[in-house]
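Support request, please re-run this one:
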Amino acid sequence: MAQDAVGAAVRRRPGRPRDEDIDGQIVAATLEIIDAGEEVTVSRVVARSGVSRAALYRRWPSLTTLIAAALDVGRMVPPEYPDDVDLRDALFDGLGLGESGVALSVAASGYAEERFRQRIRLVMSDRALQKAYWQSHVSRRRVPLLNALRAGVARGELRPDLDVDACFDAIAGTAYYQIVVRGDRMDDPAVAARLRAAVEVIWRGMVV
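Re-run finished. Output below.
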């Protein structure tokens, strides 16, 4: 696993400098356990990473925060959108549904679908982990698109009464429905076509 990918998932906290090698060992070990479908325990992380319990707890206050960091390896916060971005294109591109017709793929962002499904399995069985992962990682990735939509409202391109958070949830929900409820693969062209149709419906309700 690339060290820079591991480092990107680790949230920085004030205090003494951290040993990046040890951080990487701990996160990589946790991710290996997750990918193997095993329960993540402190004992397993310590055994697989080769670091001490004290070293682990100096870096993460709880197993929940460590698992949240491991789950986010390979994911990135998108950059802010330029002021002149085409908002419709931004919505479709955010789901990998550009006009090129390329089938949607979770792996396109460096996040394998199998790991994505493991993430769903873990967070759905542990509400504390679900909330920690949302607060520390997932919510940050929404910000650039939410800011772009708010700017679109301010420019008069989108409805003045638009709830941009609700729109984001509706769009993201169409993708999660395919995986979690229908059990479909995201690289299936038929799934991508269904998502395009759903986002088109949502988009028509967003514009002035």
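Confidence is low (pLDDT under 50) at residues 1-17, 100-105. DSSP finds ten helices and no strands in the chain.
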